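Bit of a strange request maybe. I'm writing a small parser for structure token strings and I need a real example to test against, not something I typed by hand. Could someone generate the tokens for this chain?
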Amino acid sequence: MKRIPVYLAIAALGFTAACNNAQQSGKGTAQQSDSIPMTPATAAGKVAVTLKDRNKDTAQVVIKFEINGEVKEKSFEQAILQEGSDEDVIRVAWDKPNSAYIGVVKPNRAPRYYHASVDSSNGALKIFWATVPPKPVWLYMENVQGLGKVAHSGEILTSYRKNIQSAKIIEDFIVEIKPGTNPEEVVLYVEFAGVNKTMTMPVPKGYKATIQKTATPDHVYFSMEKDGKLDAVMDLKVEDGHLQVEHLKEIK
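Reply from user aminoacidic:
Good idea to test on real output. This should exercise your parser:
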């Protein structure tokens, strides 16, 4: 697989207007409510992210952090979502001029976060895995930057049927999206080997419900499409002969 470094804009994907507002206020993100996305800071450095061996079960996330004339590079092992481009699965957001969070999407659509910062005691550059970023940070990265959403240019798919073998069972894996009782909802139907599940799913204004295929015929997502981006809501798959249905997130 060609290894191409993905460079994200220093000012966090060009949200310069929001950055200027933060500078003018002089208050930064510290005084923002933790229930709303942060206002990104103006970066004092650069972060470059490269994905290596993305097509393997365990890939490498290489993060290069440059600031104040210093450079630090660190590599992490992580399983990465196969669908979409590298740009789809990476986001960088600066919460302070010398502090940036990096999000990389895992196969289950949940992001793994990393944190690049400068040690206040000695000025050393640090890059660590961040288990739980501050809520305003992940709200900004997931809801504003769209971390976890995959580009979509195909048609809206409302019916999926594939004859598959799982364990010793050979049956049709069926997923269907049917109209609900009102325009704000749809009915999602999933079936394999006589086991089925029917769910009423809300469709927020401006979104379209669709079935998102993956690289394997026994696995699809029930997703929401808006402005050419897909946001996975339900993980639908057959594993070891059993139908698996998992709720990933709620879109409002």
